Amino acid sequence: SLVTLRELLKDAQEKNYAVGAFNTNNMEIVQAIIEAAEEERSPVILQASQGGVKYAGLDYVVAMVEAAAKNATVPVALHLDHGTSFEQIIKCVRAGFSSVMFDGSKHPLEENIEKTAKVIEIAHAAGLSVEAELGKIGGTEDDITVSEEDAMMTNPEEAKYFVEKTNVDALAIAIGTAHGPYKGEPKLDFDRLKTIRSMVSTPLVLHGASGVGEESIKKVIELGITKINIDTDIRQAFTRGVQDVVNSKPEEYDPRKILGPAKEEMKKIIKEKMQLFGCANKA
Ligand code: G3H
Ligand code: 13P
Ligand code: ZN
Hints:
Bound molecules: glyceraldehyde-3-phosphate, 1,3-dihydroxyacetonephosphate, zinc ion
CATH superfamily: Aldolase class I
CATH class: Alpha Beta
Mean pLDDT: 97
Low-confidence stretches: none
Distance between the termini: 15 Å
Helix content: 40-55%
């Protein structure tokens, strides 16, 4: 059966590693993530965004992850990524997710707190964990100036206030990463992370981690990040796998011969992440 985020992140925090949270949209991605976790002996979080749920269908997402978890010998959590509507959260609670993210980062602080608290009340009553977001993690395509970027970053005082008010299980913070592929290396605000960590004991989450260099990843884990989200790196591995086959064997028409290698490409990068995050051999 599925485990909660709270349970996974507690162990990560105690032992100073980060659990990888990998976005999934279809069966091959689910299989790549679970096989990588088994081979690396790693606890793992499979997560689906609202777009992912819409694409695959809620029942399919749950059924696929439950099928993966059924024979798994490592702990598996199923998490909603960036839930923005109360309705979506309730659907995931009912469908069997073990954890949800409520992303109220677009709202003013008090409204974000109020909405997050409401989600927590319901999710906790049903036995699920909740991740919230404070500060704005944008997209690399957003085209923002340095001062705008600074304004989007998580304010440490607000983070302390937010967790005191909500008692949330995990907090996503903005320290300079963005969703999607980077042009060049992102500059992370390590001092901000250090300050937040010194004021907040809640497990902290790094979004937009695809394309962030190994040294930076090691440093944020050292400074207290316990959940790291990866989507783009998996998408790119999948697409590279498909392209390799269709380019080298244009006559291939068996989907298994096209998606099979794509799955292997994804597995490779997921296993590398697990080793880098330190969650390998922690199951
Ligand atoms: O946070 C963004 C994730 O990569 C999910 O993206 O909404 O396109 O599924 P998506
Ligand atoms: P990337 O696509 O940049 O890896 O971000 C993933 C993420 O933060 C999902 O919530
Ligand atoms: Zn994200």
